[in-house]
Amino acid sequence: MKKLAILDDYQRVALRSADWGRLERRGVAITVFHEPFASVEDAAAKLAPFEILCLMRERTAFPRALVERLPALRFVSLTGLRAGTLDARALGERGIPVSNTRAGSSSGLTAELAWGLIVMAARGLARAERNMREGRWHEDLPLGIALEGKRLGLMGLGKIGARMAAIGRAFGMQVQAWSQNLTPERAAEAGAELVSKEALVASSDVLSLHLVLSERTRGIVGRKELERLKPGCILVNVSRGPLVDEAALLEGLRKGRPAHAALDVYDREPLPADHPLRAMDNVTLSPHLGYVNDENLRVFHEDSVENVEAWLSGMPIRVMNEEFLK
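^ that's the sequence the OP posted. Answer follows.
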Protein backbone atom coordinates (compact mmCIF):
# COMPACT_ATOMS: atom_id res chain seq x y z
CA MET A 1 0.00 0.00 0.00
CA LYS A 2 1.40 3.39 -1.02
CA LYS A 3 1.16 6.31 1.38
CA LEU A 4 -0.03 9.73 0.22
CA ALA A 5 -0.07 12.97 2.21
CA ILE A 6 -2.19 16.02 1.40
CA LEU A 7 -0.48 19.05 2.94
CA ASP A 8 -1.74 22.31 4.39
CA ASP A 9 -5.48 21.70 4.11
CA TYR A 10 -6.10 24.65 6.45
CA GLN A 11 -9.84 24.84 5.79
CA ARG A 12 -10.40 21.07 5.83
CA VAL A 13 -11.92 20.95 2.35
CA ALA A 14 -9.51 18.75 0.37
CA LEU A 15 -11.30 15.43 0.81
CA ARG A 16 -14.66 16.83 -0.27
CA SER A 17 -13.21 18.78 -3.20
CA ALA A 18 -12.37 15.68 -5.29
CA ASP A 19 -12.97 11.94 -5.47
CA TRP A 20 -9.91 10.71 -3.55
CA GLY A 21 -11.64 7.33 -3.27
CA ARG A 22 -10.37 6.61 -6.78
CA LEU A 23 -6.88 6.44 -5.29
CA GLU A 24 -7.91 4.48 -2.22
CA ARG A 25 -9.42 1.84 -4.48
CA ARG A 26 -5.98 1.50 -6.05
CA GLY A 27 -4.36 0.79 -2.71
CA VAL A 28 -3.32 4.31 -1.70
CA ALA A 29 -3.60 5.27 1.98
CA ILE A 30 -4.36 8.98 2.38
CA THR A 31 -3.34 11.21 5.29
CA VAL A 32 -4.31 14.88 5.49
CA PHE A 33 -2.26 17.50 7.34
CA HIS A 34 -4.40 20.46 8.40
CA GLU A 35 -1.78 22.46 10.27
CA PRO A 36 1.46 24.02 8.98
CA PHE A 37 4.76 22.42 9.92
CA ALA A 38 6.82 24.17 12.56
CA SER A 39 10.13 23.81 10.70
CA VAL A 40 12.01 21.85 8.04
CA GLU A 41 12.90 19.33 10.76
CA ASP A 42 9.25 18.97 11.75
CA ALA A 43 8.19 18.49 8.11
CA ALA A 44 10.96 15.96 7.48
CA ALA A 45 9.99 13.87 10.50
CA LYS A 46 6.26 13.84 9.72
CA LEU A 47 6.58 13.30 5.96
CA ALA A 48 9.33 10.66 6.01
CA PRO A 49 6.96 7.65 5.49
CA PHE A 50 5.17 9.06 2.43
CA GLU A 51 5.83 8.14 -1.20
CA ILE A 52 3.37 10.68 -2.65
CA LEU A 53 2.90 14.30 -1.59
CA CYS A 54 0.14 16.65 -2.75
CA LEU A 55 1.22 20.24 -2.10
CA MET A 56 -0.95 23.34 -1.89
CA ARG A 57 0.86 26.07 -3.83
CA GLU A 58 3.56 27.65 -1.66
CA ARG A 59 2.14 26.96 1.78
CA THR A 60 4.92 24.54 2.76
CA ALA A 61 8.29 25.38 1.25
CA PHE A 62 10.19 22.48 -0.30
CA PRO A 63 13.87 23.44 -0.45
CA ARG A 64 16.62 20.94 -1.22
CA ALA A 65 17.24 20.54 2.52
CA LEU A 66 13.78 19.03 2.93
CA VAL A 67 13.81 17.02 -0.30
CA GLU A 68 17.01 15.27 0.77
CA ARG A 69 15.43 14.17 4.06
CA LEU A 70 12.49 12.33 2.52
CA PRO A 71 13.90 8.92 1.49
CA ALA A 72 10.54 7.33 0.63
CA LEU A 73 9.35 10.13 -1.65
CA ARG A 74 8.65 9.11 -5.26
CA PHE A 75 6.11 11.62 -6.64
CA VAL A 76 4.91 15.18 -6.00
CA SER A 77 1.72 16.90 -7.20
CA LEU A 78 1.70 20.69 -6.92
CA THR A 79 -1.45 22.81 -7.16
CA GLY A 80 -1.11 25.71 -9.56
CA LEU A 81 1.47 26.11 -12.28
CA ARG A 82 4.57 26.90 -10.25
CA ALA A 83 5.91 27.58 -6.77
CA GLY A 84 9.04 29.62 -6.13
CA THR A 85 9.55 27.77 -2.85
CA LEU A 86 9.69 24.32 -4.47
CA ASP A 87 13.10 23.02 -5.55
CA ALA A 88 12.00 21.13 -8.68
CA ARG A 89 15.64 20.56 -9.65
CA ALA A 90 16.43 18.80 -6.38
CA LEU A 91 13.42 16.54 -6.89
CA GLY A 92 14.33 15.86 -10.51
CA GLU A 93 17.87 14.92 -9.59
CA ARG A 94 16.39 12.18 -7.44
CA GLY A 95 14.17 11.04 -10.31
CA ILE A 96 11.03 12.40 -8.65
CA PRO A 97 8.57 13.94 -11.14
CA VAL A 98 6.53 16.98 -10.12
CA SER A 99 3.12 17.32 -11.79
CA ASN A 100 1.29 20.63 -11.60
CA THR A 101 -2.39 21.44 -12.06
CA ARG A 102 -4.41 23.99 -13.95
CA ALA A 103 -3.97 27.50 -12.59
CA GLY A 104 -7.62 28.08 -11.74
CA SER A 105 -9.21 31.52 -11.97
CA SER A 106 -6.91 33.30 -9.56
CA SER A 107 -6.44 36.54 -11.57
CA GLY A 108 -10.00 37.71 -11.05
CA LEU A 109 -10.14 36.44 -7.48
CA THR A 110 -6.94 38.20 -6.51
CA ALA A 111 -8.03 41.51 -8.02
CA GLU A 112 -11.38 41.28 -6.22
CA LEU A 113 -9.63 40.64 -2.92
CA ALA A 114 -7.24 43.54 -3.50
CA TRP A 115 -10.15 45.92 -4.01
CA GLY A 116 -11.88 44.58 -0.92
CA LEU A 117 -8.74 45.38 1.07
CA ILE A 118 -8.42 48.82 -0.55
CA VAL A 119 -12.00 49.80 0.33
CA MET A 120 -11.56 48.46 3.86
CA ALA A 121 -8.38 50.48 4.31
CA ALA A 122 -9.73 53.66 2.72
CA ARG A 123 -12.88 53.69 4.88
CA GLY A 124 -11.58 52.08 8.07
CA LEU A 125 -14.09 49.24 7.72
CA ALA A 126 -12.16 46.67 9.75
CA ARG A 127 -12.19 48.88 12.82
CA ALA A 128 -15.78 49.96 12.12
CA GLU A 129 -16.90 46.33 12.02
CA ARG A 130 -15.15 45.63 15.33
CA ASN A 131 -16.84 48.69 16.86
CA MET A 132 -20.26 47.44 15.83
CA ARG A 133 -19.66 44.00 17.35
CA GLU A 134 -18.47 45.63 20.58
CA GLY A 135 -21.57 47.84 20.89
CA ARG A 136 -19.67 50.98 19.88
CA TRP A 137 -20.41 53.45 17.07
CA HIS A 138 -18.00 56.11 15.72
CA GLU A 139 -15.54 55.90 18.59
CA ASP A 140 -11.87 56.03 17.48
CA LEU A 141 -12.72 55.63 13.79
CA PRO A 142 -10.59 57.23 11.06
CA LEU A 143 -12.52 59.64 8.86
CA GLY A 144 -11.58 57.69 5.75
CA ILE A 145 -10.91 58.89 2.22
CA ALA A 146 -12.81 58.78 -1.07
CA LEU A 147 -11.18 56.85 -3.91
CA GLU A 148 -12.81 58.84 -6.72
CA GLY A 149 -10.34 61.31 -8.17
CA LYS A 150 -7.38 59.72 -6.40
CA ARG A 151 -4.35 58.19 -8.12
CA LEU A 152 -3.99 54.42 -8.33
CA GLY A 153 -0.42 53.23 -8.84
CA LEU A 154 0.12 49.70 -10.13
CA MET A 155 3.54 48.11 -9.83
CA GLY A 156 3.02 45.41 -12.43
CA LEU A 157 0.44 45.39 -15.20
CA GLY A 158 -0.05 41.75 -16.13
CA LYS A 159 -3.39 39.92 -15.96
CA ILE A 160 -4.10 40.96 -12.38
CA GLY A 161 -2.72 44.46 -12.82
CA ALA A 162 -4.91 45.02 -15.90
CA ARG A 163 -7.99 43.95 -13.93
CA MET A 164 -6.97 46.33 -11.16
CA ALA A 165 -6.69 49.15 -13.70
CA ALA A 166 -10.19 48.52 -15.08
CA ILE A 167 -11.73 48.51 -11.62
CA GLY A 168 -9.76 51.59 -10.62
CA ARG A 169 -11.20 53.48 -13.59
CA ALA A 170 -14.69 52.34 -12.54
CA PHE A 171 -14.02 53.97 -9.17
CA GLY A 172 -13.14 57.17 -11.01
CA MET A 173 -9.43 56.95 -10.20
CA GLN A 174 -6.49 58.07 -12.32
CA VAL A 175 -4.46 54.95 -13.12
CA GLN A 176 -0.71 54.87 -13.58
CA ALA A 177 1.67 51.95 -13.76
CA TRP A 178 5.30 50.86 -13.84
CA SER A 179 7.23 47.64 -14.19
CA GLN A 180 10.67 46.84 -15.51
CA ASN A 181 9.47 45.79 -18.98
CA LEU A 182 6.27 47.79 -19.33
CA THR A 183 5.87 49.82 -22.54
CA PRO A 184 3.73 52.93 -23.07
CA GLU A 185 1.63 50.98 -25.60
CA ARG A 186 0.92 48.12 -23.19
CA ALA A 187 0.06 50.57 -20.40
CA ALA A 188 -2.33 52.45 -22.69
CA GLU A 189 -4.05 49.19 -23.71
CA ALA A 190 -4.82 48.57 -20.04
CA GLY A 191 -6.05 52.14 -19.53
CA ALA A 192 -3.03 53.27 -17.53
CA GLU A 193 -0.28 55.85 -17.95
CA LEU A 194 3.30 54.58 -17.87
CA VAL A 195 5.41 56.53 -15.36
CA SER A 196 8.80 55.98 -13.77
CA LYS A 197 9.11 53.91 -10.63
CA GLU A 198 10.07 57.05 -8.72
CA ALA A 199 7.00 58.94 -9.94
CA LEU A 200 4.73 55.97 -9.21
CA VAL A 201 5.93 55.75 -5.62
CA ALA A 202 5.84 59.48 -4.96
CA SER A 203 2.46 60.33 -6.49
CA SER A 204 0.14 57.34 -5.85
CA ASP A 205 -2.63 57.57 -3.29
CA VAL A 206 -3.00 53.78 -3.51
CA LEU A 207 0.11 51.78 -4.49
CA SER A 208 -0.70 48.15 -5.33
CA LEU A 209 1.92 45.46 -6.10
CA HIS A 210 1.31 42.87 -8.83
CA LEU A 211 4.70 41.36 -9.64
CA VAL A 212 6.04 37.82 -9.74
CA LEU A 213 8.58 37.25 -6.97
CA SER A 214 12.08 36.77 -8.39
CA GLU A 215 15.61 37.80 -7.55
CA ARG A 216 15.12 41.13 -9.31
CA THR A 217 11.80 41.91 -7.61
CA ARG A 218 12.59 40.72 -4.07
CA GLY A 219 12.58 43.82 -1.85
CA ILE A 220 11.56 46.05 -4.76
CA VAL A 221 9.77 48.22 -2.21
CA GLY A 222 12.30 49.01 0.47
CA ARG A 223 13.14 51.80 2.88
CA LYS A 224 13.97 54.26 0.08
CA GLU A 225 10.63 53.72 -1.68
CA LEU A 226 8.62 53.84 1.55
CA GLU A 227 10.20 57.13 2.57
CA ARG A 228 9.14 58.63 -0.76
CA LEU A 229 5.49 57.62 -0.48
CA LYS A 230 2.88 60.33 -0.70
CA PRO A 231 1.40 61.28 2.70
CA GLY A 232 -1.76 59.25 3.26
CA CYS A 233 -0.74 56.54 0.77
CA ILE A 234 -2.26 53.06 1.12
CA LEU A 235 0.20 50.27 0.23
CA VAL A 236 -1.43 47.06 -1.03
CA ASN A 237 0.30 43.69 -1.42
CA VAL A 238 -1.66 40.65 -2.60
CA SER A 239 1.24 39.19 -4.62
CA ARG A 240 4.13 37.91 -2.46
CA GLY A 241 5.32 39.13 0.91
CA PRO A 242 9.03 39.48 0.08
CA LEU A 243 8.33 42.07 -2.62
CA VAL A 244 8.37 44.47 0.34
CA ASP A 245 11.24 44.70 2.80
CA GLU A 246 9.37 43.68 5.96
CA ALA A 247 11.67 45.42 8.45
CA ALA A 248 11.43 48.64 6.45
CA LEU A 249 7.64 48.30 6.24
CA LEU A 250 7.28 47.93 10.01
CA GLU A 251 9.47 50.98 10.53
CA GLY A 252 7.59 52.91 7.86
CA LEU A 253 4.18 52.11 9.32
CA ARG A 254 5.29 53.51 12.66
CA LYS A 255 6.28 56.73 10.86
CA GLY A 256 3.15 56.91 8.70
CA ARG A 257 4.88 55.94 5.42
CA PRO A 258 2.72 54.21 4.27
CA ALA A 259 -0.23 55.65 6.15
CA HIS A 260 -1.90 52.23 5.87
CA ALA A 261 -0.90 48.81 4.57
CA ALA A 262 -3.45 46.34 3.22
CA LEU A 263 -1.81 42.91 3.08
CA ASP A 264 -2.76 39.38 2.05
CA VAL A 265 0.80 37.97 1.85
CA TYR A 266 3.74 37.87 4.23
CA ASP A 267 7.38 36.86 4.52
CA ARG A 268 6.40 33.97 6.75
CA GLU A 269 3.07 32.22 6.37
CA PRO A 270 1.00 31.61 8.37
CA LEU A 271 1.82 34.95 9.96
CA PRO A 272 3.08 34.23 13.52
CA ALA A 273 0.55 34.98 16.25
CA ASP A 274 2.94 37.45 17.91
CA HIS A 275 3.95 39.26 14.71
CA PRO A 276 4.05 43.09 15.11
CA LEU A 277 1.72 43.59 12.13
CA ARG A 278 -1.12 42.01 14.10
CA ALA A 279 -0.92 44.74 16.73
CA MET A 280 -0.81 47.77 14.42
CA ASP A 281 -3.89 49.95 13.91
CA ASN A 282 -2.86 51.16 10.45
CA VAL A 283 -2.89 47.76 8.76
CA THR A 284 -5.66 45.64 7.23
CA LEU A 285 -4.78 41.95 7.11
CA SER A 286 -6.15 38.86 5.40
CA PRO A 287 -4.67 35.32 5.54
CA HIS A 288 -3.46 34.80 1.93
CA LEU A 289 -6.91 34.38 0.38
CA GLY A 290 -6.07 35.67 -3.09
CA TYR A 291 -6.64 32.35 -4.88
CA VAL A 292 -8.86 30.66 -2.29
CA ASN A 293 -12.42 29.83 -3.26
CA ASP A 294 -14.48 26.68 -3.78
CA GLU A 295 -14.08 26.56 -7.57
CA ASN A 296 -10.30 26.89 -7.51
CA LEU A 297 -9.83 24.31 -4.78
CA ARG A 298 -11.98 21.83 -6.70
CA VAL A 299 -9.82 22.33 -9.81
CA PHE A 300 -6.64 21.92 -7.77
CA HIS A 301 -7.71 18.75 -5.97
CA GLU A 302 -9.40 17.10 -8.96
CA ASP A 303 -6.23 17.64 -11.00
CA SER A 304 -4.14 16.33 -8.11
CA VAL A 305 -6.11 13.07 -8.14
CA GLU A 306 -5.59 12.82 -11.92
CA ASN A 307 -1.87 13.47 -11.47
CA VAL A 308 -1.49 10.66 -8.93
CA GLU A 309 -3.56 8.25 -11.06
CA ALA A 310 -1.34 8.94 -14.09
CA TRP A 311 1.83 8.40 -12.05
CA LEU A 312 0.49 5.15 -10.61
CA SER A 313 -0.13 4.01 -14.19
CA GLY A 314 3.46 4.80 -15.12
CA MET A 315 2.54 7.73 -17.38
CA PRO A 316 2.82 10.97 -15.35
CA ILE A 317 1.13 14.03 -16.84
CA ARG A 318 1.72 17.79 -16.58
CA VAL A 319 5.32 17.17 -15.45
CA MET A 320 6.99 20.52 -14.73
CA ASN A 321 10.54 19.32 -13.99
CA GLU A 322 11.25 17.04 -16.94
CA GLU A 323 14.48 18.86 -17.73
CA PHE A 324 15.92 17.86 -14.35
CA LEU A 325 14.69 14.27 -14.23
CA LYS A 326 17.31 11.52 -14.24
